[in-house]
Amino acid sequence: MNGVVELTDATVERSGQRVVHGVTLTVSPGSWFGLIGANGSGKTSLLRALAGRLPLAGGSCRVDGEELADDRNGRALRFGFSPPADKLPDALRGRDILELIGGDMGDVHHRLSTLQEALGLPPLLDRWIGDCSAGMRQRIAIAAAFAGGHHHVILDEPFNWLDPVATFDLRRALRDMVVRGLTLITALHDLGTLASACDAGLMLADGKVAVALGEDILRVAAQNPQAFEQQTIDRLRSGSVAPS
């Protein structure tokens, strides 16, 4: 392996049940890595474990060459991670959330750069979370993942609750940030984004790797997205798992 993030035989348990089974993946520096799978396939659990929000029950997790499988805090410090949008405290404003994570708002503005325009963030800074719609909360949660200035960021289905214009603007802004060196890992339901924006990825089924999606596969997918979508949906319907 030769990546900035390297998982080997990673397993995750929740409430005593194993929900991720022996996942191996490599994320190259300055790339966009996408995870897809049906609801309950293990995407969120895997990302939360990678970000240090859940323990790893087994396997290896190397970030920037350092073994962190047994160090949840170490993993949490390496990644920007968006809090669940529906869990943001109603009694805080957008700027309060960002200042809690990133400190001085001047520094936060610098770190967010053009992302704040793509998110339509300025009008939300002084808005109480309790007065925000689901889409507004999602925009603030995404901004929170970048407020700390991390070089590696994990987003769990970032396009949920966003309208088509916001989705387009955010996807373009994220791609530009990756081009400039960001390492981005996202769970996705949108096969179009996976094919057109991601550099590599994995399909999960029942907590296992169904198929690895390398650069060559996604390049072909971008050229024929309808065929890729059909093949992907067929796999998700069947829940078939190929050897990883």
TrEMBL record:
Q: Which InterPro entries match?
A: AAA+_ATPase (IPR003593), ABC_transporter-like_ATP-bd (IPR003439), ABC_transporter-like_CS (IPR017871), P-loop_NTPase (IPR027417)
State if ATP-binding is listed as a keyword.
yes
Describe the location of the ABC transporter domain by residue ranges: 5-231
Output the Pfam families linked to this UniProt entry.
ABC_tran
Molecular function terms in GO for this entry? ATP binding; ATP hydrolysis activity
Gene3D superfamilies in alphabetical order: P-loop containing nucleotide triphosphate hydrolases (3.40.50.300)
> Per the UniProt entry, what species is this protein from, by scientific name?
Sphingomonas hengshuiensis
Name recorded for this polypeptide? ABC transporter
Query: Which keywords, in A-to-Z order, does the entry hold?
Result: ATP-binding, Nucleotide-binding
